[in-house]
Design goal:
- By secondary structure, the chain is of the alpha/beta class.
- The chain has a single domain, classed as HAD superfamily/HAD-like (Rossmann fold, 3-Layer(aba) Sandwich).
- 43% of the residues lie in helices and 23% in strands.
- It has a seven-stranded mixed beta sheet, sandwiched between helices.
- The relative contact order is 0.19.
- Its EC number is 3.1.3.3.
């Protein structure tokens, strides 16, 4: 059994913006996407319901274009550097869409667990939405200690099962429900990574 795994949320933890609203600008539907995303982050809409709605809006953007857009999405360089230095014991756990994330995951060089899609009649279909709690549960069989880093209500199942939970307010303020579930809160990625390096 390996020692410590760092489990990172993706959107607004590693990225400097929420991915789906960022993509929605391509379809000129950023306002609707922003609203759905905010309501989800604050826990007003269940993640699976929200993701399905948001995916259905965005799935018609050609994959090549999604990759072009996401290759330009700003990332938190302190966190990226931490993950690159700890590739063998870092993982990204995200509800986001598997085939869309390649440009980001390639930059990180670590494994990624995400929602799963498949192509049916040239249309992207969502077939399995990531359950972060189940993901952490399975990983606990392989790792002695799991440290979860995220920012929203969607990360609560991950926070509850991890050995240590950290909320990172790099983009969003941490809401009270998330704050109740975590051991530490950081709003500076340099301080966060310095803390992780001391563990």
């Amino acid at each position: 059994m390996s020692k410590t795994l760092y489990a990172f949320d993706l959107d607004s933890t590693i990225t400097k913006a929420e991915i789906l609203p960022y993509l929605a600008k391509e379809l000129k539907q950023a306002e609707e996407m922003d609203l759905l995303t905010r309501q989800t982050l604050e826990g007003f809409i269940p993640f699976d319901v929200s993701l399905t709605k948001r995916f259905n809006i965005l799935r018609h953007i050609p994959l090549k274009r999604v990759h072009e857009l996401l290759s330009e999405l700003p990332l938190d360089q302190e966190i990226v550097e931490f993950i690159r230095t700890h590739q063998t014991n870092s993982i990204v756990i995200t509800g986001n869409i598997d085939v869309w994330l390649k440009p980001i995951i390639v930059k990180l060089g670590c494994p990624c667990l995400s929602s799963i899609t498949c192509l049916k009649n040239n249309i992207l279909e969502l077939i399995d939405i990531m359950d972060k709690g189940k993901a952490i549960s399975k990983l606990k069989n392989e790792w002695e200690k799991i440290i979860a880093i995220g920012d929203s209500t969607n990360d609560i199942p991950m926070f509850q099962l991890a050995d240590m939970s950290i909320a990172y307010a790099g983009v969003h303020k941490i809401n009270i429900e998330v704050a109740k579930q975590v051991d530490f809160i950081f709003d500076d990625s340099k301080e966060l990574c310095a803390f992780l390096n001391q563990l």
